[in-house]
Amino acid sequence: MLLDTPLCEFGWKAPDFTLQDPAGNSYTLSEQLGDKGLLVMFICNHCPYVQQIAAQLAKDTSLLMDEGVKVLAVMSNDYQMFEEDSPVNMKRFARKYGFAFPYLVDENQQVGQQYDAVCTPDFFGFNAQGALQYRGRFDNQGMSGSDTRVPELLNAMRQIAETGQGPKQQSPSMGCSIKWR
């Protein structure tokens, strides 16, 4: 089911969490907040919207990470029902696309629920204080692709890193619904 994310609730505070990647390494949000901000993304392996952007997502997030922005990805889907999203397949997917960021398993779906994540991909851009400044789309291309790409997420996170504030105009992300139990 195709869904759009709600408008950005500027200033909303990021709920803290600790999740593990498929290898068992733990990551805590509060420890990942940096002075240039933090991007938390809800993604999965089987969603065609995520698959469409995965290679460019790896490139854009690598740029952000090189510039000091921290990045975490969370997979909240019920992977018992969607084997493609299992931790083993998360490792394969991350390797295939060259993800440099931690790709975390939300086993009990609690983090996805706390964030009111709606779809994959769903992007949350926080400033250094953990206040939400971006909840928009990846870029202007979507599934159709346009002649000129505008990297809206990349631009927004760079603005947040520089000013602590996100852009006032944001277009919602769209993607597959999160697969809740």
UniProtKB/TrEMBL annotation:
CDD domains in the cross-refs: PRX_like1 (cd02969)
All residue ranges annotated as the Thioredoxin domain in the record: 8-162
Region (Disordered): 162-181
Highest taxon above the source species: Bacteria
Molecular-function GO terms, alphabetical: antioxidant activity; oxidoreductase activity
PROSITE patterns named in the record: THIOREDOXIN_2
Chain segments annotated as coiled-coil in the UniProt record: none
InterPro entries on file: AhpC/TSA (IPR000866), PRX-like1 (IPR047262), Thioredoxin-like_sf (IPR036249), Thioredoxin_domain (IPR013766)
Name under which the protein is recorded: Thioredoxin family protein
Organism taxonomic ancestry: Bacteria, Pseudomonadati, Pseudomonadota, Gammaproteobacteria, Oceanospirillales
